[in-house]
Amino acid sequence: MPIVTVLQGPRTPELKRELVQKVTDAFVDSLGVPADSVQVWIQETPPESWAVGGTLTADK
Question: Domain 4-oxalocrotonate tautomerase-like: where (predicted)?
Fold first, then answer.
């Protein structure tokens, strides 16, 4: 049973639906596992809680 964790900033439910479908399809296509065995966990972090190059992404 593949478990995929996606760390990202906040996204709309529509974008998350598309993401999890495409990630699931990639595992089905590449590993031949059944779609219902693929779990995708999305962990969202608000822009004020992560930084790139020493700058909060909220400040960019």
Answer: 4-59
Query: Global pTM?
Result: 0.85
pLDDT in tens, 23-49: 999 999 999 999 999 999 999 999 999
Rounded to a whole number of angstroms, the CA Rg of the chain reads 14
What CATH superfamily classification does 3-56 receive? Macrophage Migration Inhibitory Factor (3.30.429.10)
DSSP 9: S
| CA of residue 36 relative to chain centroid, distance | 17
Identify the CA nearest to 43 among candidates 3, 10, 1, 2. 10
Query: Could you tell me which residues come within 8 angstroms of residue 54 by beta carbon, excluding any fewer than 6 positions away?
Result: none
CA–CA gap between residue 29 and residue 59 (Å, rounded): 39
